[in-house]
Design brief:
With about 290 residues, the protein is α+β, with helices and mostly antiparallel strands. It contains 8 helices and 16 strands.
Length: about 290
């Protein structure tokens, strides 16, 4: 028995559309499944937890949504040692990019899920909470804080509006970053602790991150002028920002970040710093393209 987890509000309703399609695919291929959903992430999490506890022989979880749903799912499937697959119905879908899936090739992905064995991948664990893609603090977290407080506009435009509101007044924070080999005290505009390669809908903040090497890529953006930031920012979509002199990249299994700032992981609020994160090898099984 599979759990088909559908987030109906993912991608401004795309979750329902894709979820209906996936249910039809599974029925056509005679796959035994049960739909799990909820009107909030908390309700969905509770419902999935009940399903897993009731169905001790659960074959796996197929989640229809985005990185936020993936983040919720991980908190349940990792302790239960259940494999999971993520189908693209979110705004960013960055975890799927890390796994190498074509976001339009849903049939191909589903066929692999129901006919092949999943592979183990690394995850991040930050203060007891699992994350798949990127833990970050700095400008992007400030923007997330503002976007989450806004009721309008909806969808991706909310994030763009939050950038426009926060950018003029943003100032770098003072951070202390401790890795396996060194401690860095520095002002920074952004710190990204990456298990996955991208966030924000394809921003390759750590393009060389590997979900099977047991290490985080830690990107530190040291202070630059706002004009320079505007010039460098587009390069994050290709990963070329790594050549900029203000960008520093470290690799470490353990990372501690201290500052008077907040942290987000997979686009979900983790909370106020300090936080401690560890890259856990082979933490969960999933399907890689």
């Amino acid at each position: 028995m599979w759990a088909l987890v559908i987030n109906p509000v993912s991608g401004q309703g795309r979750g329902t559309t894709v979820g209906t399609y996936v249910a039809g695919f599974l029925n056509q291929h005679k796959v035994d499944f049960s739909i799990v959903t909820g009107n909030s992430s908390e309700a969905l999490c509770r419902n999935l937890q009940r399903f897993v506890e009731k169905n001790t022989n659960c074959d796996g979880v197929i989640a229809v949504g985005g990185d936020g749903l993936m983040h919720v799912i991980l908190q349940i499937v990792v302790p239960a040692q259940i494999p999971f697959a993520l189908l693209p119905a979110g705004t960013g879908n960055d975890f799927l990019r890390t796994l190498g899936w074509d976001l339009l090739a849903i049939d191909e992905q589903l066929t692999q899920v129901i006919s092949t064995e999943p592979e183990p991948i690394d995850l991040g664990l930050v203060d007891g909470e699992w994350f798949g893609a990127i833990l970050s603090s700095g400008f992007d977290s400030v923007v997330n804080e503002r976007a989450n407080s806004m009721s309008w506009p909806k969808g991706p435009m909310k994030y763009n509006a939050a950038i426009a509101l926060e950018f003029p007044r943003f100032r770098p924070h003072k951070y202390i970053v401790t890795t396996d080999s060194r401690t860095i005290s520095t002002d920074a505009m952004l710190i990204a602790v990456a298990n996955g390669r991208s966030y924000g809908g394809g921003m390759l903040v750590c393009p060389n991150a590997d979900i099977n090497d047991g290490l985080f890529d830690v990107m530190i953006l040291h202070p630059v002028s706002k004009l320079e930031f505007v010039k460098v920012f587009p390069r994050v979509f290709t990963g070329d920002h790594l050549t900029h002199p203000a960008v520093e990249v470290l690799r470490s299994r353990h990372v501690q970040i201290e500052s008077r700032a907040v942290a987000y992981a997979d686009g979900e609020r983790i909370g106020q710093l300090p936080v401690s994160a560890e890259c856990i090898p082979n933490a969960v099984r999933t399907w890689v393209a």
